[in-house]
From TrEMBL, chain A:
Protein name: Dynamin family protein
Keywords on record: Coiled coil, Membrane, Transmembrane, Transmembrane helix
InterPro entries reported in the protein's UniProt record: Dynamin_N, P-loop_NTPase, TRAFAC_Dynamin-like_GTPase
Coiled coil: 323-350
Organism (species): Actinomycetospora aurantiaca
Positions of the Dynamin N-terminal domain: 51-213
Biased composition (Low complexity): 646-658
Compositional bias segments (type: Basic and acidic residues): 659-669
Region described as Disordered: 93-114, 646-669
Pfam families given in the database record: Dynamin_N
Transmembrane spans: 502-529
Biased composition (Gly residues): 100-111
TrEMBL record, chain B:
Name of protein: Dynamin family protein
Main location: membrane
Membrane keyword on record: yes
Key words of the record: GTP-binding, Hydrolase, Membrane, Nucleotide-binding
Taxonomic superkingdom: Bacteria
Organism per entry: Actinomycetospora aurantiaca
Amino acid sequence: MDGEDTAGPDRREARAVTALAVRAAAAYGRPDLAADLTGAADRLADPGARVLVVGDFKQGKSALVSELAGTPVCPVHDDVTTRLPTVVRHGPEPAATLVGRGGDGEGGTGGEVRRRVGSADLSTAVSGRDGGDWTHAEVELPTGLVGDGLVLVDTPGEGGPRSANGLAVRAGFPAAHAVVVVTDASRELTAPELALLRAADRQCPTVVVALTKTDLHPRWREVRDLDRRHLHAHDLDRVAVVPVSATLAAHARRLAERDDPSSRTVSEESGVPALADLLRRDVADPAGARHALAALDQVTDAVAEFSAALEAERVGLEDPEGVAAMAAELSAARDRVAELKERSARWQQTLADGVADLVSDIDWDLRDRIRHVVRAAEESLDAADPASTWDTFAPWLTEEIAEAVTTTFIWAGERTWRLAERVADHFAISGGEVRSKLPGSGGVVATVAPGPPESPLEQTMPGGMVVRAELPDVPGIDVPDLEKIGWANGLVVGMRGSYGGVLMVGMVTTLSGLALINPFSVGAGVLLGSKTIRDERKRALQRRRAEAKAAVRRHGDEVLHLAGKRSRDLLRDVQRTLRDHFTAQAESLARSVAEAVTAAAAAQEIESGRRERRLRDVRAELARVELLAERVRACRAGFVAVLSEGSLPSSRSSGGALRSDRLARTGAA
Amino acid sequence: MSRLLDETRAVLDHAIRVFADDPHAVGALTAQRARLGGPLRVALAGSVKAGKSTLLNALVGEQIAPTGVGECTRVTTHYADAPSPRIGVTYRGLRREGDPAELPALHRRGSLVIETERLDLARVAALHVDWPSQHLREVTLIDTPGVDSAVSRSVWGSAEQSPEDVIDCVVHLVRHLHEPDTAFLESYGDRVAENVGAAGTLVVLSRADEVGGGRIDAVMAAQQVARRYRTDPALRPWCATTTTVAGLLAETARTLRGVEFTALRTLARLDRAELEAQLLTADRFVAASGVLPSGTRLALLDRFGLFGVRLATSLLRRGVDDSAALAAELGRRSGLDDLRDILATRFLARRDVFQARSALLAVERFLARARSGFPTAGVAGSRPSPVPRAAASRPPDAPALAALAEAVERVRSGAHDIVELDVLTRLRRHPLALPGRASAEVTEEAERLLGDAGPAAAERLGLAADTGASELRAVALAALGRWRGHAENPLADPDTAEVAQVVVRSLEGVLAELPRLVGVG
């Protein structure tokens, strides 16, 4: 991967041409286009691909994140561990912020408290020693891997799916672009780690195992092979195992500070650059390329639009006879644009219908999944006594329901992305027709459809807006009141039953001259009493089951209510984003057409004396615009190459294939 | 002490008579009886690669438990002293045709090789390794598979437990202490440690040499961690105390070979900066050219670890000059000596008490089952059997059960040591609450007086071992007065008063023994 290669994706060039286009748009009097392009330039700077670094306690997650970021950002300690997730992202200058919940703190905005801190405060807070109620820490760095658009997230140790930490970590998987599972070279993968890997593989496009502390363990190669065997046994062959040594990387960093020439080889030896390259290639580049393509497409369109006015002017100056034909074309284009803006336009129809369909489909899907979970839960409640199984039952139910909701949301994410693609297609057909009628356009500009969704819950809509599905917090189930018949209770119930027996038989036997309390009546009392207790126990069990089932159903309704609201919000968000985007596009197209018309008219009225000079100026301007367009095209080609490479089905190498092949696998699957 | 064992034996005989109709109960109780007075049974538990087998080797001083890169211990393995080496195999259920009853005891380069390839591990209950060693004379060590293994199931997780799985004490190895380990302690605290309890559990921070990337002060850093764990409220209910050990270093120190010493001395003579550069990573050390071939270097790392090589060469450079001195120093620094001390004072010194206690508990369990009408099979594990046996076992009649229960209770209340253990276990979960006193301090004192740090008088009173009898007496009398006060304090809750009474009785026992000591001296 040589960065100097001109054919490759050049992010700097992309940023440069976008900035140039912004200036040009402003210079040609199109502030609307300039604002659009500024937004694109911002997104180009930060594609924000999230990489979650997870693993068991004390495996070296924080050390690895620090080395990937290139500076010690996360505190590393012999004993104390990370308690707060730390988000390391790109920023103009180094800064650290603690983020907490609650609205009444200082600087609280929208229920979120943020406080800028120094590095010492950061490390006490992250290791949970300052007692503050923070939810996570954010660190901004100008350089390193995060400069390429990756967001690294250091997480607290994962303690298995039943622990609170484990649940929190797993909840982050669907929103992540990649998961790095950290395990140290002292032992092979354990059962909980494999479970974590399976969960990550199901929900996240790219999963990597980082085998840390290779400096300490001479036999790390054997451990790596054992790990690969475990991964193979669990059908996780796609997961690459990358050996790294944070200690060695830190050593290399210190050498580099002293300008020691050996720092580069030491750094290579640590394996951290290899992992960084892998993340860059599999995660940052595809995500970045998609963002870059979207931005460059916008630039292309904008350039075509503001060159239209110049071109119209040129035609008017050069060839007054041709103006009539052009005017006819332009008025046709104006009609078309007016149609596009109409509510009855085809893309508007597609969008409205699509969203309506999606709302009902997703609602049905969610209902169906939760209904299945509830039914399974009821069956398991019928099979056992809820009072004794509740403690294991409740976490199981919570997990199943969370899984159901996540699955629905992932599916909803895919569907919305496909809808966006369809709307974009329809718009492109009509929009393309308009554009082809603009003077000077070389025909229809092919718009590249947005790439596949980069993470299940996050999509870049056409135009570069990012829509995120926020998973609802699935609440825990309320503990129902499970009545139990204890000893004292049983005694009372038994007495009640036996009382009747004693009286009944006692009354009869008094007839034969015995006392009311006699052996027969007492015997009958005992018999009836024990029967009453048994019956009462059985009834209590049934009542407990009914209570538990009611609680399960209530819980299902509650989750349905919350998740339903969230999914509708998501869809409305998508609809609004798409509508606003395409309406804005239609408006800027309309303006371009109008400007072209004005320019052509103005050219007719110019005095013959100044005509020559004006023509020369316009030609020079057009040449400059053409140069810009040429640069954009060249730059775009590089990104298209990356993306089409990446979207090729990965060569399914069988067991003995080259390791590098597997490393080169991209997140296309 | 042996009076306690005699009484326990009598109770077991009584119980065997009562449950004579139930072959399962008889089997379990006979096994209990046979091991009374024998070695203490100490299990090594923990997650995969926590260093259980390595520590076992270090304790025995020989490489008998297989250790290696991958997961090694897949079956529970008992290591006991015997006149000649032998590896026996027991199965879950009946032994099938072709199942070997014994494995050949092979030696390779001074270590024992256990070939498990021919075994169907899913059905093997346990391996029993007989090995002549003086270090196994007092304890039988039980090596267990890791609790979170990706391939094998652990004994702790399974409900079935055979009579020979009786465990007196548990050494729980952790690499760091976090939720999963505490959860494990909790779960087996209920199942296995029913007869172990917190008083019989020791938590060891193993692989101490890897803390902080194997720095030269790694073990010291680990000791600080262990000190923090000792007062960790989350850990308190589950163990008597904590310590650290660098297992690999300990094992190597106990089995240091001449060639290794020579190789280390060669390394120590290298230029200091050069050696440090080589020791930056394991790979660099192995690949370094010069004085030693890479095969020797890899072997050194396998035996010492990067930390061990760093430590040993620095010791050699500082003037430790012969193999025995190096081994002794490495052993001391690895924390093994501390661990052995703890095992000796806390566990071995009360061997009879631990054994009697678990035997009585077994009898009580059978009693409880018989009274509730359940068949006794399944008490200590229902071993699948082709012969239906439910019909054969007729529950013993109530008067016999009552008499047996009475006998158990008589031994129990007569043996103050057992009461002490029970109170110690309870204290770990529920610290004392005395009005107007710092409860942590009082609890600590109570634990010490109950013999938590060792049953000898000086240990109980927190004095040096060579303290004179008259001083011991004075301190004991002062403590007795104080604790009588606690026991009679009208404001104290019933639990505290009860604990205080037990403490008073322990102190009376200490005082009763003292004059005789004077007479002897």
